[in-house]
Amino acid sequence: MKFEILTIFPDSLDSYFNCSILAKAQQKKLISINTHDIRANFTDKHKRVDDTPYGGGPGMVIQIEPVYKTLKKVYPGLCQGSGSQARKNKSTRVILLSPQGKTLDQNEVKRLAKYKKLILIAGHYEAIDARIDNFVDEKISLGNFVLTGGELAAACLVDAVSRLVPGVVGKEESVQDESFSHYDSQTKEFNVEYPQYTRPEVFYPQGKKGQGLKVPSVLLSGNHKKIEEWRASQTKSKS
User: Fold this and answer.
1) Using CB atoms within 10 A of its CB, is residue 5 exposed (0-12), middle (13-18) or buried (19+)?
2) Which of 118, 125, 31, 134 is nearest to 82 (CA)?
C-alpha cells in the first residue's frame, strides 16, 4: 500500500510516521509513505505558492499550478482537465482533504484500503484554487471543524487505512473486534468497543489507605462465556 502526500510542509508529519506501528510497517515494506513538497514546483520568482483570492476576501489561496505540477510528477497517468472518470488506473485514488468532503468513517476507511495507492492533497491557508477539483477523485473531511491545514487529516487517513493492511497490526483479531469494526446498515450505527483493563487488579489513586478502583470481577473469573456476555453488554452503538 502506497501513500503519497502533497503538502507545502513536507516535514510536519515525519515524527508521527516514523514511530510505532507505522514505522514498523514501513520497515517491513507493508506500506510506504512519501511526502512531496508543493513548494518545489513554485512558479513565482519569490518562491511563493500562494496568492490573494480573486474577488477579494481574507487569507491566501494556494495556486493551482504548483499543486498540479506536483500531482503530475507523482501520478504521471493523470489526465489534464478530463476529470477522474477518464482515468484508467483503478488502483490509484486521488483525494483532496477538504471540509467540503464526505466525512471519514470506518466504512470509508475499508473502501479506501482496497486501493494500492492513495494520493492525498493537503490544503493550507484558506484553500487550494478550486480548479484542483478537475484532478481529484474525491474529497474527504474528518468532521465539522476546521484545521489549520490538511496535513493532520492526511495523517489520520494514512493511520486508519494502514491498520487494515494485512500484517501491519500484529493480531488480526485486534482489527476485527475493535471500535467501529461492525456496522448495522439498518440502524446506521457502529459499535464502540467494550472497556479494557490490565494490571494491577486494584488501583489506589491516593495510596492504599484510600479507596481502590477495581477491575470488574467477571474479567478475573476465568469464565469465558460470562466474559463474552459482559463485553457484549458493554459494547455500545454510535451513529
Assistant:
1) buried
2) 134
Pairing of strands 213-214, 236-238: unpaired
Q: How confident is the model at residue 43 (pLDDT cuts 50, 70, 90)?
A: confident
Grid coordinates representing 52 are 490573494
pLDDT band at residue 81, thresholds of 50, 70 and 90? very low
For the chain, the structural domain boundaries read: 2-162, 177-238
Residue 60: is it exposed, middle or buried by C-beta count within 10 angstroms (0-12/13-18/19+)? middle
Q: How confident is the model at residue 86 (pLDDT cuts 50, 70, 90)?
A: very low
Q: What is the pLDDT of residue 85?
A: 46
Just give the CATH number of 2-162. Answer: 3.40.1280.10
The CATH-assigned architecture of domain 177-238 is: Orthogonal Bundle (1.10)
Looking at residue 172, what is its pLDDT? 67
Query: What's the pLDDT at 187?
Result: 65
DSSP β-bridge partners for residue 187: none
Single-letter residue type at 231: R
Across 133-171, b (16+ Cβ under 10 Å) vs e yields eebbbebbbbeeeebebbbbbbbbbbebbbbbeeebbee
Quick one: how far is CA 118 from the chain centroid? 11
